[in-house]
Write a structure and sequence with these properties.
With 572 residues, this protein is an alpha/beta fold. The strands form five sheets. Strands 1, 2, 3, 4, 5, 17, 22, 23 and 24 form a nine-stranded mixed beta sheet that branches. Strands 6-7-8-9-10-11-12-16 form an eight-stranded parallel beta sheet. A three-stranded antiparallel beta sheet has the order 13-15-14, with no helix packed on it. A hairpin with a 2-residue loop joins β22 (539-544) and β23. α5 crosses α7, α8 (222-234) runs parallel beside α9 (251-265) and α16 (456-467) packs antiparallel against α17. This is Amidohydrolase 3. InterPro entries: Amidohydro_3 (IPR013108), Metal-dep_hydrolase_composite (IPR011059), Metal_Hydrolase (IPR032466), Metallo-dep_Hydrolases_sf (IPR050378).
């Protein structure tokens, strides 16, 4: 029987997601699935939509397993900025924060939690969320009810679960009782049955509520993590996602904790990794050799934040003299800050960061770089605010102050908080492709006016594949890291590979013309909330379930994205 295609992608360099050498060929699609790859001469293509991919690479759609579109998936159809960069599947519920399960009286508590941990303004969530759910299962139904421009999978977040079970005791981080643990285990199993990929939690000291309080899951006992893992296993298996407490001076303690959970329950534990820890690869290898399925999520460029007068934070944001400027626009702030008296006052003051310890990084001048046209995410140390200040003979505070006033207050500075060991990304390159690591941490949907890391797939192709002077990554290896590997880690075996039977999620990319533009602020969230977006040139088409969702970087209006309910088996 001759198969009939409804779409053909022709003449492209096929990079299939497995790590195999690229080959020129075609891809045939029917009913949202790939039906042939390479030679499609046996396929009936009469009447099929044809996309000419000559001169381009053709890849599977990218899979981002660490996002926070929990709210955006409720109020928006498009999951930008991820979908501007070839992403066709995202996973939400990471870091143990989210909006379900939630009793009606706890709405404000969960909004405050997400506002503090993920820098989403409370007013945005208050207007954007309709709270048409209480259980996690109902939340999944709410996500599923809206069409989207990519597929969405979800974890059950630990902090809302803890509050749902324990109420005020959970918010106060009291130890869970046996009854509490039993309820959490049962609810975790129910979530997996309903379609969750697993559970997610955080032990990170820097994760705070909007009031500066530690999050409910921060010091949850090991037995509580075992209860979550047991619930996952009760329902057939899945993943535990975890943010370790890197304030713990002995990182090996955190790795041992995760290894105990992974081996006891025979599940994957994927966690926020850091290249700043000496010997992290060897630590991983030892525990994996003993049977612990640990997968460190690493970020392929500096982990950091973007600061500026038009954004959430800047080096002077938490100074007393800056408070009168908070209600003003960026240009109005810049105009006021040109006053010599205010300049002297702000430069002399120290910020009060007691509520948000992470804000100290907004003065990490040695690793702060102005973002100007042509900016590269591996800048030379001489470009830092500290080095620029030394060259001018001024203090770093003065240099940062003057830079912030450029572009009428619209200037942006990147703070490279992590990964940027010795002023380069060599430590990152050494871990990309390691059997115990996976690319992630793009955080799309979070830190709206503080980061725009969801653009990292474009950075991987430009920086690591095409432009880096040394230590480049082979195209087929980089594509595997963006597609089949993250999909496999979370159990989505039906995507991430150009193979007959797999989902027809594809990208057609002009690699030589691929360009990542500077971030920009836009007030398009509910209640006029602000976020950073970042565009790219060179994406000729993004295809989801056999439908073109983006053409030359512009949305087509097609919204075939669905909720992915649970782990998916490989075809065949």
């Amino acid at each position: 029987m001759v198969m009939k295609a409804d779409m053909l992608v022709t003449g492209g360099l096929l990079v299939d997601g497995t790590g195999a050498a690229p080959q020129v060929g075609d891809v045939a699609v029917a009913d949202g699935r790939i039906i042939a790859v390479g030679d499609v001469s046996a396929i009936d293509a009469s009447g099929a939509e044809t996309l000419d991919a000559q001169g381009c690479i053709v890849t599977p759609g990218f899979v981002d397993i660490h996002t926070h579109y929990d709210g955006q998936a409720i109020w928006a159809d498009r999951l930008r900025p991820s979908t501007d960069h070839g992403v066709t599947t995202v996973v939400i519920g990471n870091c143990g924060v989210g909006f379900a399960p939630c009793r009606p009286g706890d709405h404000d508590a969960l909004i405050g939690l997400m506002e503090g941990v993920e820098d989403i303004p409370g007013v945005v969530m208050a207007e954007g969320l309709d709270w048409s759910w209480e259980s996690f299962e109902d939340f999944l139904d709410a996500v599923d009810a809206r069409p989207h421009d990519c597929d969405i999978a979800a974890y059950l977040p630990h902090s809302p679960l803890r509050v749902y079970v324990m109420g005020e005791r959970g918010i106060a981080r009291e130890p869970a009782s046996e009854s509490d643990l039993s309820q959490m285990r049962a609810l975790a199993a129910r979530a997996i049955d309903a379609g969750a990929l697993g559970c997610a939690t955080s032990r990170l000291y820097f994760h705070r509520t909007a009031d500066g309080e530690l999050i409910p899951s921060f010091n949850a006992g090991e037995e509580e993590l075992h209860a979550l893992a047991a619930g996952i296993v009760d329902a057939g298996g899945g993943v535990l996602q975890l943010v370790p407490n890197y304030e713990n001076p002995d990182v090996s303690d955190e790795l041992d904790l995760m290894a105990r959970i992974a081996t006891h329950h025979e599940i994957t534990v994927t966690f926020t990794g850091t290249t700043s820890t000496p010997g992290i690869a060897e630590m991983l290898e030892r525990r994996r050799a003993r049977g612990a399925d640990l997968m460190a999520q690493i970020f392929p460029r500096p982990i950091g934040m973007v600061v500026g007068l038009d954004l959430s934070w800047n080096p002077f944001r938490f100074c007393d003299a800056f408070e009168p400027l908070v209600p003003l626009s960026a240009s109005e702030r810049a105009a006021r800050m040109r006053d010599p008296a205010l300049r002297a006052t702000l430069i002399a003051q120290q910020p009060d960061i007691a509520r948000f310890p992470l804000a100290r990084q907004a003065r990490n001048f040695a690793n702060m770089f102005p973002m100007t046209p042509g900016f590269k995410y591996e800048p030379d140390a001489s470009e830092s605010v500290a080095d620029r200040a030394a060259a001018r003979g001024v203090s770093p505070e003065e240099e940062a102050y003057d830079l912030l006033l450029e572009d009428d207050g619209g200037a942006m500075l990147l703070v490279a908080m992590g990964n940027y060991v010795a002023g380069n990304l060599d430590s990152v390159g050494a871990l990309i492709g390691h059997e115990g690591t996976v690319l992630g941490l793009g955080d799309g949907g979070a830190h709206y006016a503080l980061i725009c890391d969801a653009s990292y797939p474009t950075s991987v192709l430009i920086h690591w594949v095409r432009d880096r002077k040394t230590g480049r990554i082979a195209l087929q290896d980089a594509v595997r890291e963006l597609t089949s590997k993250p999909a496999s880690v979370v159990g989505l075996q039906d995507r991430g590979i150009l193979r007959a039977g797999c989902k027809a999620d594809l990208n057609v990319i002009d690699l030589q013309r691929l360009e990542l533009h500077l971030p920009y602020a836009e007030c398009d969230l509910p209640a006029g909330g602000k976020r950073l977006l970042q565009d790219a040139s060179g994406y000729r088409a993004t295809i989801l379930s056999g439908q073109v969702t983006y053409r030359d970087g512009k949305p087509t209006g097609a919204l075939p994205g669905k909720l992915v309910r649970g782990r998916q088996h490989a075809p065949g």
